[in-house]
Design brief:
CATH topology: Alpha-Beta Plaits
Shape: globular
CATH architecture: 2-Layer Sandwich
CATH superfamily: Transposase IS200-like
Number of domains: 1
Order of helices and strands: EHEEHEHHHH
Structural class: alpha+beta
CATH class: Alpha Beta
Helix content: 40-55%
């Protein structure tokens, strides 16, 4: 095949530094738009996004020319600068992240999950949510190094 084609969906999750709730309702929609634009510029399509006060969920495609780490770095670096320009001076994202593969048959389920974040977090904490993902995907983790 002379062309290289792919469609890989990933669900990225990461928190603000120390899970401090710095993302306000006032910036949420514009933050979503900013991140969607950032990802679009590198060839990633965002299926769904939701910024909770202390963490972010993004379901997007992974461009075939970059790594997951590069994609996450682009999101964090550019959006952190953008948020600071909005007046949240002490903002930063945690160093790490969670990234989970999503089958094309499960995309709609994950989209609904992300859209339901406000209701979901009335019952489940972010830390428990991430622990559940790690367990579901059989990812071994050390609590000491997950939260920063």
């Amino acid at each position: 095949m002379p062309q290289s084609l792919s469609k890989v969906y990933i669900h990225c999750v990461f928190s603000t530094k120390k899970c401090i709730p710095l993302i306000t309702d006032a910036v949420r929609k514009d933050l979503h738009s900013y991140i969607i634009g950032t990802l679009s510029n590198i060839g990633s399509y965002v299926n769904e996004i939701y910024a909770n006060p202390d963490h972010l969920h993004v379901l997007c495609t992974l461009p075939r020319t970059i790594t997951i780490a590069e994609l996450i770095s682009k999101i964090k670096t550019s959006s952190s600068k953008w948020i600071k320009r909005q007046g949240i001076i002490n903002f930063s994202w945690q160093d790490g992240y969670g990234s989970f593969s999503v089958s094309s048959s499960k995309v709609r389920i994950v989209e609904k999950y992300i859209l339901n974040q406000p209701e979901h977090h009335k019952k489940v904490s972010f830390k428990d949510e991430l622990r559940n993902f790690f367990n579901e995907y059989n990812i071994k983790f050390n609590e000491q190094y997950v939260w920063d």
